[in-house]
Design goal:
The protein has about 260 residues and is an alpha/beta fold. The protein contains 14 helices and nine strands. It has a five-stranded parallel beta sheet, sandwiched between helices. Strands 6-5-7-8 form a four-stranded parallel beta sheet, sandwiched between helices. Helix 1 links the parallel strand 1 and strand 2. The structure holds D-glutamic acid (DGL).
């Protein structure tokens, strides 16, 4: 992962859709002056696309927002973090880029006591197995069980969350993982952070949930200048209709615009 000593004043936060808002919301606790939330809402979900499609869509979207005024980029998407991180760092060699995959995998490897770890994510993320590989590099004997959850992102992106259908999908995906005696579960998709309240009761207290947003805030904390910023500037760059994105933003993370 890139590192920088240059203070972060203006940060791009990227996701395919609304999932990265869970990360933006947390990053706003840091004294950063300006955030650009960038989402490829015209093409979400990424999780059911081929690696080539995901790489080309991510690059095209980022090329329209990355300019010399940007101090850093957070890939607030596990799918893009798993598949596009290397391409991005090569395309923008001077831009510090942080992905969400590595901190989540590292945290799981260090959190799990019995070294039995579950991972939920999009089909593309699970097929690419970058979280699993990263954990195995740290804990070669770890037992890792992965579960793709293709129905979740479309449910979360829908204008209204269908709570019963979402609960049923979560039950279908998560219950089989519990039979593997995992003590740690990676929430390997930033969209799922937005339905944490539905995941928590299914998983119970004995399983540690690895959540990306606070990990990213802790990672960036040493890089920000100690300064008072009452209200950061937030600009929104989406490839789909702005109005439907703002409506979703208002329903899932209203504090972002109110802060
Ligand atoms: N929020 C994204 C992630 O963390 C991707 C969702 C998608 O577009 O399928 O993987």
């Amino acid at each position: 992962m890139n590192d920088t000593k240059k203070p972060l004043h203006k940060l791009v936060v990227f996701d395919s859709g609304i999932g990265g808002l869970s990360v933006l919301q947390e990053l706003m606790k840091l004294p950063i002056k300006e955030f650009v939330y960038c989402a490829d809402t015209a093409h979400v979900p990424y999780g059911d696309k081929t690696p080539d499609e995901i790489i080309s869509l991510t690059m095209k979207t980022l090329l329209s927002v990355i300019d010399p005024s940007i101090d850093g980029l957070v890939l607030a998407c596990h799918t893009a973090s798993s598949l596009v991180y290397e391409t991005i760092t090569q395309a923008f060699p001077h831009l510090p880029v942080w992905n969400v995959m590595e901190p989540a995998a590292r945290s799981a490897a260090h959190t799990s006591l019995n070294k039995r770890i579950g991972i939920i994510g999009t089909s593309a993320t699970i097929a690419h197995s970058r979280h699993k590989q990263t954990i195995l590099n740290i804990e070669p004997d770890a037992y890792i069980i992965q579960q793709a959850c293709p129905d979740l992102v479309p449910l979360i992106e829908a204008p209204q969350l269908d709570i019963d259908a979402t609960k049923a999908a979560l039950h279908r995906y998560i219950t089989p993982l519990l039979a593997h005696s995992i003590d740690t579960l990676i929430i390997g998709c930033t969209h799922y952070e937005l339905i944490r309240n539905l995941i928590n009761p299914l998983v119970g207290k004995d399983i540690a949930l690895i959540s990306t947003p606070p990990l990213m805030t802790a990672l960036l904390y040493p890089l920000v200048e100690n300064q008072d910023i009452v209200k950061p500037v937030i600009s929104i760059h989406v490839t789909g209709p702005q109005i439907s994105f703002l409506q979703k933003l208002n329903s899932v993370a209203p504090a972002i615009l109110q802060k």
